[in-house]
């Protein structure tokens, strides 16, 4: 087994050809530590231990072992460069996601998602209509707002409409998870794994859209089967009213402009996309400054024709509030961001031990890229797509664009086969208050697998020229 040689701009140190620790006690210990940590991650629903905690601890121990072993072989200077390389990869993705999460939190603070939920519920569609509508919106919204946020918003709609109908809520949540994951598979902004692929540069922004039709197939096939189990009765009437906070739609526009800025930085200026995202954060900060400066009693009294003595009670409705961009930054999904750190560093450490070279040789040389990339979807359902995709990108097998798109598709939608296979599924199990469960999802796994197989076949057929 050969450990891949690595070189860096700083210094001339490289990992010697043939250097591997997979048979050393350090390598075995590191692998055991990672497996134990990931067992805790998979049991998060039952232990209530945040998933970031075990992987962060595991990352620290794994890198301590790697550093000690490299030092014993006279490679102390190399291991520092290796660690910095992995930290840089994490930093770019983490900062990118932080800006995206800040925008999503700002839109939530301005009541965009609550407004959408109430609007859908008040339309009094039939239950089957809500099933299809929430699925369609999940598919269309997740490429922009990410699959996790989309799933949480649409789950609130299904919960509000379903009431005590556990069967409808369960099927509705399954449909949302499948649709959100499928929608996120053809956009760099739809899922962490697609963002990783885009940032790595193996697939360009516009090439992701070759996966639109396979993604639609992935959602439509199981949705058709599940829709027959949904009652066509009218949903209950809801009288709740929600008013948007001021200039809410401006923040939506700024988010779209931020996405365009990130894409332009990457495609035209050949700069890291995260730099474009941070410029977009600057847009939000400046607009937040405007919102804060125009928040005054005189402004409110004049604009809304309210007597000054009535302003306090008016503010309690939440329609007008001073905007604080740093509050939205603080409300980012820090457990997810820190979990991502742990995964990147754990997988990176195992890679520098030699395990990824060994795995890459089996998957892509023995099995072949087609079988390997299809199997990634099943791994994603069991383990989680983030470490699986990061491992593939770290292996960096020599593949055609068609195969890179295939692994992007399978990693993105494979997690839909089990409720614990994606962040959207795990989040909805918590939000649905017991109405959407692991075994409830498992009942529909055969038709979800059918959609998975059909989407893979569709991609291979439609995009055959890319292989």
What does this structure look like?
With 467 residues, this protein is mainly α. Helices cover 70% and strands 0% of the residues. It has 23 helices and no strands. Helix 1 (25-42) runs antiparallel to helix 3 and helix 8 (166-184) runs antiparallel to helix 10. Mean pLDDT is 83; it is low at 1-13.
Largest sheet: none
Roughly what fraction of the amino acids lie in strands? under 5%
Q: Which structural class best describes the helix and strand composition?
A: mainly alpha
Please report the total strand number as a whole number: 0
Percent of residues in helices: over 70%
Q: Outline the low-pLDDT stretches.
A: 1-13
- In angstroms, what separates the terminal alpha carbons? 28 Å
The residue-averaged pLDDT reads 83
Q: Cα-atom Rg, whole angstroms?
A: 24 Å
Topology readout:
Blueprint: H1 25-42, H2 44-47, H3 52-72, H4 76-109, H5 112-122, H6 127-145, H7 147-162, H8 166-184, H9 192-200, H10 212-227, H11 248-267, H12 273-293, H13 297-303, H14 311-315, H15 325-330, H16 334-353, H17 355-367, H18 369-382, H19 385-395, H20 401-413, H21 423-431, H22 438-442, H23 445-462
Helix pairs in contact: 1-3, 1-16, 3-4, 3-16, 4-11, 4-12, 4-16, 5-7, 6-7, 6-8, 6-10, 7-8, 7-21, 8-10, 9-19, 10-23, 11-12, 16-19, 17-18, 17-19, 18-19, 18-20, 19-20, 20-23
